[in-house]
Amino acid sequence: MKMLVVVQFFIISLLLTSSFFVLSSADSSACGGKCDVRCSKADRQHEECLKDCNICCQKCNCVPSGTYGHKDECPCYRDLKNSKGESKCP
After folding, report:
1. Fewer CB near the terminus (10 Å): N or C of the chain?
2. Does the pTM of the predicted model rise above 0.90?
3. Which CA distances in Å does 68 have to 8, 19, 37, 40, 58?
4. Where on the phi/psi map is residue 61: left (φ > 0), alpha (ψ -120 to 50), or beta?
5. What does the entry give for GO biological process (predicted)?
């Protein structure tokens, strides 16, 4: 009986630890999904939008919600500038 409890505890701990790791890591696939949403309405510049959004997401670990605006949700994303001093992130 005690062995069963120990095994169950170990399995639950392993599942919780792996779930935490997935949620805390900011990998490119997480950025890609968020940037797909962010750039979904960018017609002509869709590829450029995705490129810039993914760069910003990798640097800031966040992407604002929606397809436009809401940049206050992610100050780092909001404050990144391109070489012309304009907002880099879509």
Report:
1. N
2. no
3. 46, 30, 10, 10, 19
4. left
5. gibberellic acid mediated signaling pathway
